Amino acid sequence: MKHKAVATWLALGVGAFGLHRFYLHGPKDRWGWLFPLPTLLGLVGVQRMNHLGQDDRLAWVLIPLLGISLVAALIGGIVYGLTPDERWNARFNPRRPAAPAGWGAIIGVVLCLLIGGTALMATIAFSAQRYFESQQSATP
After folding, report:
1. SS3 per residue for the chain
2. How many C-beta neighbours within 10 Å does residue 21 have?
3. pTM for the full predicted model
4. Mean pLDDT for the chain?
5. What's the Rg (C-alpha) of the chain?
6. Which of 58, 77, 89, 96 is the most buried if burial means most Cβ atoms within 10 Å?
């Protein structure tokens, strides 16, 4: 039995690695396997920036990948948590009675919205700042 609240919280906690997708669709899920590589590359970018400073251009490219992976996972968590119970059970728990998701899914959705919005804005701000700084230094 696949629980909506569990899927929402997995997307919130470890969704950047695709574990919420593997919980729902198994290890053969192609979309789930798209999460780990950009997440790990983004983490490499964070490490590069910590060690080499803010002028490392490769880190500028890699760090937004982490933000995009995180935001994509949290959008999935929002969708999971807001799916009506009947549709959820028809898709993930066929031939079983509909079980209400309760407050666990709702709290997970609120946290996904809060963290996802913050991550999205931070990713946009970081990327825009680095872009404009590079344009300013490129002009004579």
Report:
1. CCCHHHHHHHHHHHHHHCHHHHHHHCCCCHHHHCCHHHHHHHHHHHHHHHHHCCCCHHHHHHHHHHHHHHHHHHHHHHHHHHCCHHHHHHHHCCCCCCCCCCHHHHHHHHHHHHHHHHHHHHHHHHHHHHHHHHHHHHCC
2. 23
3. 0.87
4. 91
5. 18
6. 77
